[in-house]
Write a structure and sequence with these properties.
The chain is of the alpha+beta class. 34% of the residues lie in helices and 21% in strands. It has 14 helices and 18 strands.
């Protein structure tokens, strides 16, 4: 039986368009997911570049202009489909790099060999961001094939989002004219904790700081030297503990200066997106009791800064015991920032605090520091946000919420400013996707929602003047 001509299908039913070619699209997505495009791993550079080249060829097969923009590190993939004069220009941002797959032993299969099981795609990058990004590409391709894409669409696919978008940041000013647009669409975000679709009204900024404490020239015998030589591992613990007071408040002098409290309307809207403590415990296995005591979880995650330990390294961690005082200990920190905080200033304040708190006899060393970007906050009254909310309800069948996201996409604020575009952040990630963790996955339903949302929004822009 022949499939109906796509040009004869009803554009009011993007769901039917998705189902028509779903198997072909999955084959293409699986090919994309097989690339080990881990931007943080130098050993994956060749695979990352091959991934970018594959995307560039795929854009060409879609009938779009596609090229690699060299950055001095990993390339940015740029795509363009010119629309009609006088119609809006839509800029889409996504990324083709992924987080490291470690620890590999916890995966139920090869993280770079995608599998379809239980209605979900299992692979590193299935949700963050290859799956979500691919849903937009396929929606834009469908609109173009139908002859319904009146808007000009520009696509920017970052190769280093997971490691700070260094190359893209470096060239933003130079590419300003090329990126100029009216709307910036980003789907590298989640639905609300409650599972409701969400229009993201804010993102936190992020900074990174890796430090070490150095003691003796070599690991010491803990019996002979215990109680005499300073212990770097203990010192790292003391530094970490000094970052917060007993109520969970950040104890770094000046760090929270400039932080603005959410308005009553923002608090009310954010509360609707919270799924409740029971839902949080079911998903994560832990109670939502971190951060400052007495403050609601949705306020802590969306409107307040944090400083978190991401990892610690010191001493012997193998089987059995080894009685030593380690010569060195290291700590990896990240901090999430909110509007009113300057990333570089906050980075200096944390470093100064840690230097001042370094225990006697130990040497403090900064191994790495980076301030990729600050927070961003959108206008609650935006007509574009209201339109997106209406489309979300139509696509998912659920009432949407407005959510202030605790995560960060550092380059988005700078990209929107450079392009002169109004940001629109709507994605379909869920907590159960386990992004950044072993066994990442993305359901076919989420993929379909992302596709249908993009089709409907692109149709809206194409009908606009």
């Amino acid at each position: 039986m022949e499939r109906p001509d796509i040009c004869m299908m009803n554009m009011a039913n993007p769901d039917a368009l998705f189902r028509r070619d779903v198997h072909e699209r999955l084959d293409q997505l699986f090919a994309l997911l097989r690339f080990r495009s881990v931007s943080a791993d130098p050993a994956s550079r060749a695979s990352s570049r091959a991934c970018a080249q594959w995307l560039c060829r795929h854009l060409a097969r879609m009938g779009w202009e596609g090229r690699l923009l060299e950055t001095g590190s990993l390339p940015v993939v740029f795509g363009l489909r010119r629309g009609k004069a006088g119609k809006p220009v839509v800029l889409f941002y996504g990324h083709y790099d992924v987080q490291p797959a470690d620890p590999l032993k916890e995966w139920r299969g090869n993280p770079f060999e995608p599998r379809l099981r239980g209605g979900r795609i299992w692979a590193r990058g299935a949700s963050d961001n290859k799956g979500q990004m691919f849903a937009f590409l396929k929606a834009a391709e469908t609109m173009a094939r139908l002859g319904e894409l009146g808007a000009t669409v520009k696509i920017v696919l970052d190769g280093e989002e997971e490691s700070g978008s260094v190359g893209l940041f470096r060239h933003l000013r130079k590419w300003k004219a090329m990126l100029a647009s009216d709307v910036l669409m980003v789907n590298d975000v989640d639905m609300a904790p409650s599972g409701a679709p969400a229009v993201i009204m804010g993102l936190r900024g992020v900074i990174f700081l890796n430090v070490s404490l150095v003691g003796s020239r070599y690991d010491l015998h803990s019996g002979i030297h215990g109680g005499v030589a300073p212990n770097p591992a203990q010192g790292i613990g003391e530094l970490l503990a000094s970052l917060h007071d007993s109520c969970g408040r950040i104890a770094v002098d000046g760090f929270c200066e400039g932080v603005r409290k959410p308005s009553a309307v923002e608090r009310r809207l954010a509360a609707r997106s919270w799924g409740g403590a029971r839902c949080y415990i079911k998903e994560t296995g832990v109670a939502p009791v971190g951060g400052e005591k007495g403050v609601e979880p949705w306020v802590r995650s969306g409107f307040m800064p944090t400083i978190e330990a991401n990892g610690m390294i010191s001493g012997y961690v193998g089987e059995g015991s080894k009685t030593i005082i380690p010569a060195e200990a290291s700590l990896k920190l990240s901090a999430r920032l909110v509007p009113g905080q300057d990333p570089n200033r906050c980075l200096r304040l944390i470093e100064t605090h840690l230097r001042r708190k370094t225990p006697e006899g130990l040497k403090f060393r900064v191994d790495f520091k980076q301030a990729p970007g600050g927070a961003m906050k959108l206008d609650i009254g935006s007509p574009l946000a209201r339109k997106a909310a209406a489309v979300l309800k139509e696509v998912t069948g659920r009432a949407p919420v407005f959510n202030w996201h605790g995560a960060s996409i550092p380059v988005v604020g700078a990209l929107a400013e450079t392009a002169g575009a109004e940001p629109l952040l709507c994605g379909f990630g869920l907590a159960q996707d386990r992004v950044h963790a072993p066994n990442e996955s993305f359901s076919l339903a989420q993929l379909r929602w992302g596709y249908c949302f993009a089709v409907s929004m692109l149709r809206y822009f194409s009908d606009s003047e």
